[in-house]
Amino acid sequence: DFYLDCNKEGDAGASSVLQSNYFYLKNYIKEEKKISVEGMTLKNFMKINTINNVDFLWLDIEGCEYDVLNSSCDILKNIKYIYTEVNFINFRKNIKLYQDIKNLLTENNFEEVCKWSQGDDWGKWQGNVLFKNSNFEQTN
User: Which of 47, 75, 116, 139 has the most CB atoms lying inside 10 A of its own CB?
Assistant: First the structure.
């Protein structure tokens, strides 16, 4: 299932695999339509395309960042940097927040390099964080 933001004044980038909670739906998206889409895991994408290592992975997938990372723990060792959007409030059902992502990546030998807020103070709504794999072999 995929929840499409149908608000004419909305942001199609706010569509997600996760359904909006009532507050977010009422105040920002206003109208959401459930559709079916095909998808695949990061692990399968890398396997199908014979990708062994990734220098830079950018995740901005409206609350699904944790799910992608958690389902890919065995390949995280092959990723050098991860730049990801993080959330601080539960604006979608079953969303995982910043601390969940940070804990998961820390357990998989990543360290936080730097972080940015998205228009608000850090920790208020959303932000972006760059993580570095501390075990990835450095090549020049």
Answer: 75
Which residues on neighbouring strands pair with residue 59, listed in sequence order?
Answer: 84
* Cβ atoms 76, 111 nearer than 8 A: no
Q: Are 75 and 43 in contact (CB under 8 A)?
A: yes
The first and second tokens of residue 94, run together, are 């079953």
Q: How confident is the model at residue 93 (pLDDT cuts 50, 70, 90)?
A: confident
At 43, which helix (H) or strand (E)? helix 42-48
Sorted by sequence, the CB contacts under 8 Å of residue 134 that are 6+ apart come out as: 109, 110, 111
Q: Kindly state the average pLDDT of the residues 111-137.
A: 87
pTM comes to 0.86
Q: What's the confidence (pLDDT) of residue 10?
A: 60
Please tell me what DSSP assigns to residue 20.
B
Q: In this structure, how many other beta carbons lie within 10 angstroms of the beta carbon of residue 132?
A: 17
Neighbour order of strands in the sheet with 110-117: 54-59, 79-87, 126-133, 110-117
